[in-house]
Structures are given as C-alpha cells and as structure tokens.
C-alpha cells in the first residue's frame, strides 16, 4: 500500500446534506479499515460539553468496520494531544474500492479519559424522527447500536483493541 492511497467517503446527513471526506488509507483488512485525516480546517471547534474535541489543525484516526453500524474516531487536538474516542452511529458503509457511501444516523458515543461512555445527540435523532427524516425502524436500529456500544464499554470490551493500539503517533512514526 503506498502512502498516497486515499479514500473518498460520501457521508450523507439526513435529510439532504452530504459531505465528502478524503482521507489517507493507513491499514486495510477484512475486519477493519483505518484512515487518518489531514490536519482539519474547521470554521469553529467541535465541542462536547463546551470542551473542544476537534479544532483547526486537529487530526483524527478513523476505524471503519465493514458491515457494522458505527465507525470509531480517535480524536486529537492540534498539538496532537489525544482527546477521546468518538463513534458515529451510521449505516454500514457501502465500500466500493476507494469510494465509500454511508448515512449518519444522528447518535454518537463518546468516551473521554476514564469517564463512562455516553450517548450524544439523542435530541437530534428525536427531531429527525418527528420530521420524518428517518424511519422508526432505522431510528430503533441506531438506538440499539449506541446502547450496545455503551454496554460493551462498561465491560471494557469497547472500543476494540485496534482502536486503542493504533495511535496517531504510531501512524505518523511508521510513515516513510
């Protein structure tokens, strides 16, 4: 795999927004694909409880699990300080070579430091359901996935070992 390998991720945000992410491919296996963002340029920091978790200059390492209803990001500040683990609840990605398509299902799971994992954006899912942007079956599936991740985190079984082991420092140190 060459260092120039990149993937394009078409990320649908219901009802009618789409973002395209172009990320560097780091590892590709049958059970996980690891990508890393370039340093981000954000109009404003992304926050959890008022604390920035991604800011301009930050990077994230993303772990995509084919056939699974979530991905996981390792979030870093601009100074490369690790911030926490962030899971997007989403439709299993349709992976066609270096082009992927997936749909965000509003819920996220956040783990920082030794704090318990928690579900974020339940209000966004409820609003989308009320407006008809997501059907009840898919909303239930999103809740099930988020709850499953919380339960796994409580037993120490989430995030997976590869997510804990494959740090930004490790990835950058292995570059040619």
What is the element string, with H for helices and E for strands? EEEEEEEEEEEHHHH
Q: Provide the β-strand percentage band.
A: 35-45%
Shape: globular
Through-space gap between termini: 12 Å
**Sheet with the most strands: spatial strand order:** 1-2-3-6-7-8-10
| CATH evolutionary superfamily | FomD-like
Task: Give a short account of the largest sheet.
Answer: 7 strands, mixed, barrel
Identify the CATH class. Answer: Mainly Beta
Mean pLDDT: 94
User: How many distinct helices?
Assistant: 4
Jot down its keywords:
176 residues, alpha+beta, FomD barrel-like fold, 7-stranded mixed barrel, two-stranded antiparallel ribbon, 4 helices, globular
Question: What features would you describe in this structure?
Answer:
There is one protein chain. The protein is an alpha+beta fold. The chain has one domain (6-173): FomD-like (FomD barrel-like fold), CATH 2.40.380.10. Helix content is 23%, strand content 40%. It has four helices and eleven strands. The strands form two sheets. A seven-stranded mixed beta barrel has the order 1-2-3-6-7-8-10. The termini are close together. The model has no long low-confidence stretch (mean pLDDT 94).
What is the element layout, followed by pairings?
Blueprint: E1 6-13, E2 17-28, E3 33-36, E4 46-48, E5 51-54, E6 60-64, E7 70-76, E8 82-90, E9 94-96, E10 99-111, E11 118-120, H1 122-131, H2 136-154, H3 161-165, H4 168-173
Parallel strand pairs: 1-10
Antiparallel strand pairs: 1-2, 2-3, 3-6, 4-5, 6-7, 7-8, 8-10, 9-10, 10-11
Short description:
The protein has 176 residues and is an alpha+beta fold. It has a single domain (6-173), classed as Beta Barrel (FomD barrel-like fold). The protein contains four helices and eleven strands; from the N terminus they run βββββββββββαααα.
